Amino acid sequence: MKLGFLGLGLALSASAHTLFTTLFINGENQGDGTCVRMPRDGATANGPVHPITGNDMACGRDGAKAVAFTCPTPHRATLTFEFRMHPDGREPGPIAASHKGPCAVYLKRVDDMYAADDVAAGPGWFKIWQDGYSNETGKWCVDRLIENHGFLSVRLPAVPTGYYLVRPEILALHNAARGDAEFYTGCAQIYVEQGPDGALEVPPGKDARIPGHVSPDDGGVRFDVHARPLPAYVVPGPGVFAPKGQGQGQGAPTRRAKQTAGKRPGDCVLKNANWCARPVPGFSDARGCWTSAQNCYDQGERCWRTAPPSGNVNCKTWQDYCGSLEATCTSAAASGPPQFRGGEETAALPEKAAKPWNDVFSRSPRIRRPSSEA
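Above: the chain sequence. Below: its structure as tokens.
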């Protein structure tokens, strides 16, 4: 008897473009694709959003649907977004150097992250950070992103406890003067813990509807990045909003509300993006072993099938475990299962990249270094 499955390969994406693939919270890698909404088609995943008036501007293509996991996030944490030119990291580099332009980060509180209807598109967004062009250095945000190896770190403002979509945005202006500005965006699902009491109140003029926060005719969107001398540049969209208490130590955290949906299962033995492997059934004979092995392979098949463009490396780890389990089934005295000794493959965040740039805060939180295994 021979079980198993064929791993599915990821479609190769075009070079030069970029995709938000990985979220770090206080320096800890949450796992490639974990809690991140991203396009399903790997061949086009890193392409820009078109048109900018469509609902895909909220969280990117396929961003209307929630992913299984929502990452718990401490009050006023530092969030780091990793952008990759090649979503699965098979080659280094975040974006082509020619794609100069600004960056911004938006936030939206949502009541039901897993509602059947799209909770991403529409009103409720506000900008918590932006970075455009520096007259002092002659560099754009994209230049700094490349120097930072694709990592963009910002500090979370003092927002109330609850579920949020956090949306990093890159605007590439290399063809903007011809009416072809390129927006790259995606969303991470987070649950802010121990935030201050009270409602989130965003003042008029600071709130935004996405799509609708920018227009193709905005000066910061239809901008000639090649003009000399370079005109003064204003990052498009609303101004940055810092909720009351941000950076001043006001707004006492509350411990009452807790995350109930989107939590990683307690018996998850291995994670790839938003898939988790669960313990396989125990057995005491060969027949039970084959049943356990089939359960293992069935779980693995779902891993390969649901792996996002950010990669399937942990599916391969699980497949190897299934193979070792199957190898024990040839013995009539088989018993088990064997202990799973693998671990989720994640990369550490470089210390320099963990520090927010263009920061409105003065307080520096403790950065918890990620371990090699989840």
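Residues 286-306 form the longest helix (21 residues).
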